[in-house]
Amino acid sequence: MNRNGLPFLLPMLALSLAGFVLPLALLGVFSFVDTSGSPTLANYQRLFADPFVLSVLVDTIALGFKVVALTTLIALPITLLYWHASPALRRVIVFLTLLPMLTSNVVRTFAWIVILGRQGPISQALVELGLAPAPRSLLFNETALVVVLAQIELPLLVLPVMAVIARSDGALSAAAQTLGAGPWRILVTVLLPMMAPGFLAGWVLVFAGATTSYVTQSVIGGARLIYLPQFVYREVGVLFQWPSAAAVAFVLLAATSLIMLAMTAAARHPRLAGHA
Amino acid sequence: MTSALSRRQFAAGLASLPALGVFSTRQARAAGSVVAAAFPNAWEDAYRKIVAPLVAAQGTQLVVSPALAQDQLAKLLASPGKPSFDAVLMSPGQTAEAVSRGLIEKIDPSKLKNWDKLEASARTEYGPNVTVEINGIAYNPTMVPKPAGYKDLFENKAYDGKVAWIGFGSNTAAMAWVEIAKLYGGGEDNMEPVFKLLASHMPKVGAIANNGSAQMTMFQQGEIGVFMASTGNVARLKSLGVPCEFVHPISGSPSVPVTIHLAKGAANPEGVYQYMDAAISAEAQSKLALPPTEMIPTNSDVPLTPGIKSFVSEDDLKKLVYPDWAKINAKRAAWTAEFDRVVRK
């Protein structure tokens, strides 16, 4: 690091310390005291002894993985198209990828209420095609939630992969072809390893976004699908159990951090980092 | 780029910002503004359009901040003595909590010019009641028949998959659950019959929503045809052109007054009094009694409008039910947690 640059970093570091590290430390302290302020481990013991909370934690992490999987399935064709596209078409793909990010997450979530609703186009089409006897709502189930989160988080996966592709040599696949590799072999041995660092970076972002997306989880999932963000909100806003909410928040933070650390570590692996 | 600003000057400038009060919203707002919490949507809009100009005429800016009653309570609890709102809008369920935790102050009625105009029941030591919310059942007449009462919603097949419910965090829902508990052998201190009923009825429930606003969105989109609502909720949906009618349950309509409170430690108490006075004035309440809010006035100079009379007849007023909030609050947290466990997929 250039030592002369340190003074310019100081405001940002001070802001991070005051706005993030200190509140987080306070939250940590809250999680180890009871409502009267005495130190205790009871908040964590209660969480891990309650099967309901554990199942909420497992569901939240599972939701993150499901969204990562679906987002990857959707992102892969887009990124392959980007690989093969001309510079002009690449600009169009980047623009279309960025377009949804120009509207707020809340607006995109509410748009999905219309799309998946009882009177929405999908429900109506199913009835018109004779595939459903009557209009039915496609909201308030986990499949719908995974689909919506995948659409909302998609740019976070596509953009890092595009960034990796943009820096890569376009002649690589042509060289592989010259050496006799077919399309599938090129995909598996050249393109996917090349894109891997981008995917790993994107997965970290998508996983973090999906597991903590309170608005989308509560609006599309309804109140019957309970994930940790809603659980924390309920503990704080309705039950006023702050120590317990702080402990839940820390468990969520620890669980997602561990998974993201694992993904980040994988991204640094020489083979996956594109240095093999 | 060359900069005329040296690093030392920049640092000095940065250090002086707190002295200027740039980071202190409390100081900034104490000067001539009041931050008042109001329920989201209809209340928030109406207070911004009707009450805020009346407060502004007295030289104070009214900043209306949307928050549900339970969220207001949570925010007051988060910073006791340094509240994020100067004034809050609550019903007895939250008021009792706020009083017991020392979050709101008794008011000095002599500072309110319109105090004597209020109905006697609307004058409380912790602030003026600005309306009475009457709760019942909202239904879409193009989707479902008119429900007779709460039992109908569980026992008549016409409502299968069409009714939305919410948990005990909402006052409207808590009151409805208490009434339902009474119908099935429970009451304000016994919610077991409701949980048993709900557990067996879950496959036929239309939706479980997180809050009242989410329910109204679902209703508007045709997702559900019935939800527990106040007359105000129905008036709002009607004003948007949504087919929506209000029905009083045959067991009676649970009702709650809505009160403006002065938060303890408010930055601008005098401004809060100006706000309270404006909200109970005949000028404001006569406008709030019209669509889309159709709030029942508490100022005795304001007559009931024909629109309000269509919601509440003299007979209905005799059948209003006032729940025992002390009993409900004692078990509300436990019921909220239990509700999540019962409805979870």
Automatic annotation (TrEMBL), chain A:
Gene Ontology terms: cellular component: plasma membrane
PANTHER family found in the cross-reference section: ABC TRANSPORTER PERMEASE PROTEIN, INNER MEMBRANE ABC TRANSPORTER PERMEASE PROTEIN YDCU-RELATED-RELATED
Subcellular location, in the record's words?
Cell membrane
Which PROSITE patterns does UniProt cross-reference here?
A: ABC_TM1
Keyword tags? Cell membrane, Membrane, Transmembrane, Transmembrane helix, Transport
Could you tell me what this protein is called?
A: Putative spermidine/putrescine transport system permease protein
- Source organism per entry reads Bosea lupini
Highest taxon listed in the record's lineage: Bacteria
Automatic annotation (TrEMBL), chain B:
**Transmembrane domains' residue ranges:** none
- State if rRNA processing is listed as a keyword: no
Q: Which domain of life is it from?
A: Bacteria
Please indicate if the UniProt record lists Signal as a keyword. yes
Pfam family membership, one: SBP_bac_8
Q: Which keywords describe this protein according to UniProt?
A: Periplasm, Signal
Q: Which InterPro entries match?
A: SBP, TAT_signal
User: A single Gene Ontology molecular function, please?
Assistant: thiamine binding
Q: Tell me which Gene Ontology terms the entry assigns under biological process.
A: thiamine transport
Q: What are the GO cellular component annotations?
A: outer membrane-bounded periplasmic space
Q: Which SUPFAM superfamilies match?
A: Periplasmic binding protein-like II
Q: What is this protein called?
A: Putative spermidine/putrescine transport system substrate-binding protein
Q: Which organism is it from?
A: Bosea lupini
Query: Top-down, what is the taxonomic lineage of the species of origin?
Result: Bacteria, Pseudomonadati, Pseudomonadota, Alphaproteobacteria, Hyphomicrobiales
